[in-house]
Amino acid sequence: MLIPAVLKKEEIKKAFQSFYYTDDMLYETGSMCSWLPDIPEQTNDGGDIQYAIMDGDKLVGWLGYYIDFYNNCANHFGLFSFDRGNPVVGIDVYKEFKKLLNTYNLHRIEWRMIGGNPVEKTYDNLCFKYGGNKHVLHDAIRDRYGKYHDDVIYEIIN
Questions:
Q1: How far apart are alpha carbons 141 and 8 in whole angstroms?
Q2: Burial, 42: exposed, middle or buried (Cβ in 10 Å; 0-12, 13-18, 19+)?
Q3: pTM of the model
Q4: Beta strand pairing status for 73-81 and 108-114?
Q5: 107-145 pLDDT per residue, tens
Q6: Residues ≥6 apart with Cβ < 8 Å to 139
Q7: Tell me: the pLDDT tens digits for 43-53?
Q8: Which one of 40, 87, 106, 147 is most buried, counting C-beta atoms within 10 A?
């Protein structure tokens, strides 16, 4: 279940901090830095959307994105699963994408992913289910071990 992230702000920060200095941060940030989402108490334009992903009373993930109302586009997606393999994360993200496309009737949804992320196949399926495109910038990001990863860009035009 998705609830406003501000309701679980401190719990989300602690969950993110537990992944500091891990390879998981590469998939979230696209770099070797550790990062925390900025969860404001209120938004000025209403376009900054952030959710805590809950499985009952347990925090299992965080989802954030931005809606550009002028261009009718959702972008700047961030997703982090704190409970790997929990199907609630994927189910809630899928429901949110359906809402963006069918209820909000957004014209465009775009997001990025670092190649090698275990969720790539799921993203591929989601993108192609809605007739989207996948663009790959090969060997664009280098990790701390010297291995290069692709920068993958997904887009769905509604």
A1: 32
A2: exposed
A3: 0.93
A4: parallel
A5: 999 999 999 999 999 999 999 999 999 999 999 999 999
A6: 148, 149, 150
A7: 877 799 999 99
A8: 106
